[in-house]
Each structure stands twice: as structure tokens, then as C-alpha cells.
Design a protein that fits this description.
- By secondary structure, the chain is an alpha+beta fold.
- It has two domains: 127 residues, Diaminopimelate Epimerase, Chain A, domain 1; 124 residues, Roll (Diaminopimelate Epimerase, Chain A, domain 1), CATH 3.10.310.10.
- The chain is built from six helices and 18 strands.
- The protein has an 18-stranded mixed sheet that branches.
- A hairpin with a 4-residue loop joins strand 4 and strand 5.
- The two termini are 15 Å apart.
Length: 264
């Protein structure tokens, strides 16, 4: 198997929107430094490295331009889309061996359903540092693992934010999700944006992993187990969610926009 490289837009049904991920399809494991160098060269929020472990299991790792991360939704969606819809290498459920354990993905018509761990965000004390960093008044703050969730008054405030990334960097170990309920006449339940300068991503266009905590939070607030969210970045993207106890199913589509081959 050649070392092939693909760029796939995730959580969207059209090209040049959603969140682009590079997917490197390998025949065996590679050196960590090489993978980090490839991710830096791609300069996308995530590059996924994928190779077969056996007939039913794939190794999957995710790198930002500067670090390896423990969980990534959009690059997992891109990898599953590649295996099922682009290369037809998987006919049934796809299993990935990752830093977050075994993750599964299943094709649902043109979309992919990801079975991910859910995280319960715990409230933290509001701080003036939060408002100063994001440039808006927060109404609630929560922490979910390495991420901070800041709840804002309305969806318009989320969409119009221009945060001070130098201050955002000091708030958390990975990223800051800002979120609000969607308007009553919207087809979405909530909106969000995600900033992660700590790991080399100023703003992530669509963040599947953040919805592993945003979904349970808004599910509790709205009394729902099935939700649809919009990440209001410049590219934008839609994520469907189903809450299943301590698991979250993320649903989205993807589009392949580039196919190539690595020479290095």
C-alpha cells in the first residue's frame, strides 16, 4: 500500500466548508517525528495517520501542526469516510485503535456515525478573565477534561466574537468552547465555536470532540437525547448527536477534495 494522502472536509455535505482534515493512509506504523513533520507540513487543524492492524481494526492517530492529541472527531469522520465512501475498503462498521480506546464508525447512507465517549462538564467559578479573553460576558463556565466551556447569552454573541487568543491560551490545556442556545426558530439546538491556540489552532472550524461534552450539557439543559448543532466558524459545519448514556454518537457527512501521494 502506498503512502497516500487525502484532504477531506468533514461535517459538511459540500466542498470547501466544514473542517478540513488530512488523512495519511499508510501500510504500517511510522516514526512519531515523521508524523509530526507531516502534520506541520499540512498545517491543518488535524492530520490523521491510518494503517491496518488486522482485517477489522485500524490504527488511528491525530496530530495538530504542533502536538499529538487524544481525541479528534472531524479527522475520525474523515478517515471513516475515506475507508467506506472513497476507497470501499470497509463494508461494515469500522473500528479504530486510538489513544482514547477503540472507537467505531458506521456508515448511515451518505453520512458517518461515530461512537465516541461522552464527558460531563463540571461547573467552575465564573471569572473576569473569561470575559476579558473572549470579549463577551459569560453566563456560565464549565470544565470538561482539558477543555473549558463558556456559555454566552445568545447565538449572535457566539458568532460575532473576536477573542484575544493570547489570553485564551492561559485559560485551559487544550481549547475553549463558547456556546449558546440557538434561536427558537432555528433548526439547530445550539451553536458553538472552538479556540485552541495552546495546541496550535487559533480557531477550529468544526470540532467533533468538543461535542462529546457540549452534547451532554445541552441535552440536560434542553431535556433532549437527540440534538443538532452548528459550529459558527467562518467555514461552518453541522453535527448531529445522539446521547447514549456515557457515549455520544456524532453524525456528519464529508467530502474528499484532494488526493495525492507523499514523496518524503
Amino acid at each position: 500500500m502506498k503512502t497516500s494522502l487525502f484532504i477531506i472536509d468533514a461535517f459538511t455535505d459540500r466542498a470547501f466548508s466544514g473542517n478540513p482534515a488530512a488523512v495519511c493512509l499508510m501500510d504500517s506504523n511510522k516514526d512519531d517525528a515523521w508524523m509530526q513533520s507531516v502534520a506541520a507540513e499540512m498545517n491543518l487543524s488535524e492530520t490523521a495517520f491510518l494503517y491496518p492492524l488486522d482485517a477489522d481494526l485500524w490504527s488511528l492517530r491525530w496530530f495538530t501542526p504542533s502536538v499529538e492529541v487524544n481525541l479528534c472527531g472531524h479527522a475520525t469522520l474523515a478517515a471513516a469516510h475515506l475507508l467506506r465512501h472513497e476507497l470501499a475498503l470497509a463494508k461494515g462498521p469500522m473500528k479504530f485503535f486510538t489513544r482514547s480506546g477503540i472507537l467505531t464508525a458506521t456508515a448511515v447512507d451518505a453520512a458517518i456515525c461515530l461512537d465516541f465517549p461522552g464527558f460531563i462538564a463540571e461547573p467552575v467559578e465564573l471569572s473576569a478573565d473569561f470575559d476579558a479573553a473572549i470579549g463577551a460576558q459569560t453566563t456560565a463556565a464549565l470544565r470538561a477534561g482539558d477543555d473549558l466551556i463558556l456559555v454566552l447569552p445568545d447565538a449572535h454573541t457566539v458568532a460575532s466574537l473576536n477573542p484575544d487568543l493570547s489570553l485564551v491560551r492561559g485559560l485551559t490545556e487544550r481549547g475553549v468552547a463558547v456556546t449558546a442556545a440557538a434561536p427558537a426558530d432555528s433548526r439547530w439546538d445550539f451553536v458553538s465555536r472552538f479556540f485552541a491556540p495552546v495546541v496550535g489552532i487559533a480557531e477550529d472550524p468544526v470540532t467533533g470532540s468538543a461535542h462529546c461534552s457540549l452534547g451532554p450539557y445541552w441535552g440536560k439543559m434542553l431535556g433532549k437525547t437527540q440534538l443538532t448543532a452548528y459550529q459558527a466558524s467562518a467555514r461552518g459545519g453541522e453535527i448531529g448527536m445522539e446521547l447514549m448514556g456515557d457515549r455520544v454518537r456524532l453524525l456528519g457527512q464529508a467530502k474528499t477534495v484532494l488526493k495525492g501521494e507523499l514523496y518524503a
